[in-house]
UniProtKB/TrEMBL annotation:
GO terms for cellular component: mitochondrion; peroxisome. It comes from the Eukaryota. Pfam families: DSBA. One of its GO terms (molecular function) is glutathione peroxidase activity. This is DSBA-like thioredoxin domain-containing protein. Residues 5-180 form the DSBA-like thioredoxin domain. SUPFAM superfamilies: Thioredoxin-like (SSF52833). InterPro entries: DSBA-like_thioredoxin_dom (IPR001853), GST_Kappa/NadH (IPR051924), Thioredoxin-like_sf (IPR036249). One of its GO terms (biological process) is glutathione metabolic process. Transmembrane segments: none annotated.
Amino acid sequence: MGGKIEAYFDCPSPYSFFAFQHLLKNRELLASHGIEVERDTAKFDRERAAKYFHVKDMSPPPFFPPLTILPQRVATYIKANYPRSRFENTFLLYWTYMFYRHIDLSKPENMIALLREEKYSDAEIETIMKSAQSPEGKQALTDRTKEALDRGAFGAPWFWVRNAEGKEEPFFGSDRFHYMWQFLGVPFQDVKILEKGKERAKL
């Protein structure tokens, strides 16, 4: 049996964004070690993390913390009904809208604009938005949220990881990947200090 990472993200969390990007970047390497990745949906720390993960720093929107029930229901529906790449591209755009453009995705008209930008047809958008407000759409997100809470989640990103021996443990935060790799038995290079004169390597 290979290992598995189940990831729980929330779109108002910049650290979910950093972790989501990091897992996408390393998905093929993890797969080569038999690890499957299953994704669900403080100023100085944010700036440092953005630099470390090689992404442009973001700023909290004036409506922070945003209400994310609608965008999370939409993401849950898209994840269940579209190819993985479509879900990933759409979910990444959530952070662009909220943390770079400061557009509130709790407003249906803004959610629709995002879906149009991702080239969903008008018919698809109508189906997605109706599904997000349907009893089934609401229950789907409730079930995933309950699953995370039952596993002890208290924030995002939250990871539930199973190694090749079948042992399972939780991990929290975008700065716990080295612990995850150790638990999974994945070889990695740890952070180390370079000798003076050999400091060309950059994060």
